[in-house]
Design a protein that fits this description.
- The complex is a heterodimer of chains A (203) and B (392).
- With 203 residues, chain A is α/β, with parallel strands linked by helices.
- Chain A folds into 2 domains: 56 residues, RecR Domain 1 (Helicase, Ruva Protein, domain 3, Orthogonal Bundle), CATH 1.10.8.420; 138 residues, Dna Topoisomerase Vi A Subunit, Chain: A, domain 2, CATH 3.40.1360.
- Helix content of chain A is 45%, strand content 13%.
- Chain A starts with a helix and ends with a strand.
- In chain B, a hairpin with a 2-residue loop joins β14 and β15.
- The chains are: A alpha/beta (203), B alpha/beta (392).
- Chains A and B meet through α3 and α8 of A and α4 and α5 of B.
- The complex binds zinc ion.
- Zinc ion binds next to α5 of chain A.
Chain lengths: 203, 392
């Protein structure tokens, strides 16, 4: 099957194989990384191995907003000074960081972990949508901000959420236009994103 | 408009050519498989960012094109286009992709420049307008509906940047919608909430579809004014040709984009069960067709071979005339090995049409014997052989 495994000793072949499962890394890069680590100081390799394990053992999704956290609740959900009446819905944890950087928003978040994308087989049941609706029913929320990416998939997700949220009697808003269409929140500059969040409009 | 300068690098069988072109008629002649067709293909590609004959762009890159150090092999097509009031330089680079090991894949990326500035492929369409006429087009009348949709889409895309964008958007939405319908059909997803989940996609599909439909109906109405009498002149028949747009849904009297969107959205809701059962979007511009008739007789079904050729010729010349009427500029005609396919009467008509002043026509032929001495005396000739083009 793999001719190189006959020549390369098993532990090396195994690391190459594991690394090539990572996104964007093919066999060539995997080999390069493996041989780099082979020659690296013992301490550096241990630090990397421990960082990987610690990340997996300690980090999980916040039980309330599904952001990444090391505690049961993420720091934002724990912070009682934040405005508990607003939830900003985003696609990915990185979007939370992007919005936090703008300092334009002081409410809570909810991370969907994706967007509706039929071509990739991603539908509402694959996203944290029911969890969001449960929060809106049980928490003192009066505004939900739909901060999906301004592209077709993001729009489709926002459209679906709007239909679900309106009957629950909350105000539903979207960041103002001005974000580059087709782009990702994650890459918008903080100033543009900040003013889009400030100028959000009701749907 | 006309192309004044045209260059290729590593495109199909051409390593490198650089041609100055004159407004009138230029005839490229040479043996079969010498690459005459590739010249017209390159210009069609520059006008539409699509090849008329191959689905994958990597085929366009010459097989032994060498990348420079660190650069993957690419083909380059560039032209200088003279318009009435301005001129523009167009350039497309088709670069092959490689996998991580450096092996070439079947992928390719397109890099477009307009007046030396990077542009999107969509922005290139319409800068150079062409009408391509090849023996394959003779299937336009009796071939599959997709051929006729392609005819109207290519015409309108070159005339209206909004049409290009909306068409791309529509196709994307239809694909997404089909994936959803297929998932329900195959019972991969629960059947409740179908209306809610389709609401967004129905709305987007209807909106884009309504615009495309309105534009196509308007174009067909304008084309009928043009091709009706044109067909009589070409065929010698007394009754004019009539094009009818065959929509996949009942249009009632809807003609505006708004009303047509409304119609589409009503019909989509009505067809919900059928669409889920079949797992696909059953109506819309991607399912429409056109038919051609003379005195009420459908020529796709009952027309003679000669009549069908006259229709195709009228449609192609009509396409050029429509572009001229709408934009005030004559498109460049690209005729690939067409004259040998036509009888004397149709050939005479075609030659008269391309001889009009201010009309640039590039045509290919294998045999100079197809042309009279008078015709040959007034055109520019170029001999194509072994991946080279020689004047005379
Ligand atoms: Zn949280």
């Amino acid at each position: 099957m793999r001719p190189e495994s006959a020549i390369i000793v098993e532990p090396v072949a195994r690391l190459i194989e594991e690394l090539s499962k990572l996104p964007g890394i093919g066999p060539k890069t995997a080999s390069r990384l493996t041989f780099f680590l082979l020659r690296a100081e013992e301490g550096q390799v241990q630090a990397l191995a421990q960082a990987l394990l610690a990340m997996k053992e300690q980090v999980h999704f916040c039980s309330r907003c599904f952001n990444i956290t090391v505690a049961a609740l993420c720091p934002i959900c724990q912070d009682t000074n934040r405005d508990q009446s607003k939830i900003c819905v985003v696609e990915e944890p990185l979007d939370v960081l992007a919005i936090e950087r703008t300092a334009a928003y002081r409410g809570l978040y909810h991370v969907l972990h994706g967007h509706i994308a039929p071509l990739e087989g991603i539908y509402r049941e694959h996203l944290k949508i029911d969890e969001l609706l449960a929060r809106v029913r049980s928490e003192p929320v009066d505004e939900v901000v739909l901060a999906m990416n301004p592209n077709t998939e993001g729009e489709a997700t926002a459209f679906l959420l709007l239909r679900d949220l309106v009957p629950l009697g909350v105000r539903v808003t979207r960041p103002a236009r001005g974000l580059p269409t087709g782009g990702d929140l994650e890459w918008a500059d903080p100033e543009t994103l900040g003013s889009a969040i400030h100028g959000r409009r009701e749907l | 408009m006309h192309i004044s300068q045209f260059s290729l690098r590593d495109f199909r069988n051409y390593q490198r050519i650089d041609l100055q072109l004159a407004p009138g008629i230029t005839l490229f002649y040479g043996p079969n498989a010498s690459g005459k067709t590739s010249l017209l293909e390159a210009l069609f590609y520059l006008a539409t960012t699509r090849s008329p004959r191959s689905r994958s762009d990597h085929d366009l890159v010459r097989w032994d094109a060498l990348g420079e150090a660190g650069v993957l092999p690419f083909a380059r097509v560039a032209a200088e286009v003279q318009r009435r009031m301005s001129h523009v330089r167009l350039e497309v680079l088709v670069q092959r992709r490689a996998d991580e090991e450096g092996q070439l894949t079947n992928g390719a990326q397109k890099l477009v420049r307009v007046d030396k500035r990077p542009a999107r492929a969509l922005d290139l369409v319409g800068q150079l307008r062409v009408v391509l006429f090849t023996p394959v087009d003779l299937a336009l009348v009796d071939g599959p509906p997709a051929e006729r949709r392609r005819y109207i889409d290519i015409t309108l895309s070159q005339l209206d940047p909004r049409y290009v964008r909306t068409l791309a958007q529509y196709q994307r939405i239809a694909q997404q919608r089909n994936s959803m319908l297929r998932a329900w059909r195959e019972r991969r997803r629960p059947l409740r909430g179908i209306d809610d989940e389709l609401a967004y996609w129905d709305q987007e599909l209807s909106q884009a579809g309504g615009f495309l439909l309105a534009e196509r109906l308007r174009a067909v109405a304008e084309l009928n004014q043009i091709v009706g009498p044109l067909f009589c002149a070409i065929s010698g028949e007394t009754n004019p040709l009539q094009i009818s747009y065959q929509a996949s849904l009942e249009l009632d009297d809807a003609r505006t984009a708004h009303d047509l969107s409304q119609r589409l959205s009503e019909e989509l809701r009505r067809l919900r069960q059928d669409e889920v059962a079949r797992g696909q979007t059953l109506i819309g511009p991607h399912r429409d067709d056109m038919s051609f008739s003379v005195a009420g007789i459908d020529l796709g079904r009952y027309g003679s071979r000669g009549q069908q050729r006259s229709v195709t010729l009228a449609l192609k010349l009509g396409e050029a005339e429509l572009m001229q009427q709408r934009s005030g500029e004559t498109p460049v005609l690209l005729l690939d090995d067409m004259l040998s396919e036509l009888d004397t009467q149709r050939r005479t008509h075609l030659i008269a049409a391309i001889r009009r002043p201010a009309q640039q026509t590039l045509l290919t032929a294998t045999d100079l014997g197809d042309f009279g001495a008078a015709f040959l005396a007034e055109i520019t000739r170029m001999r194509v052989e072994g991946g080279q083009v020689y004047p005379g």
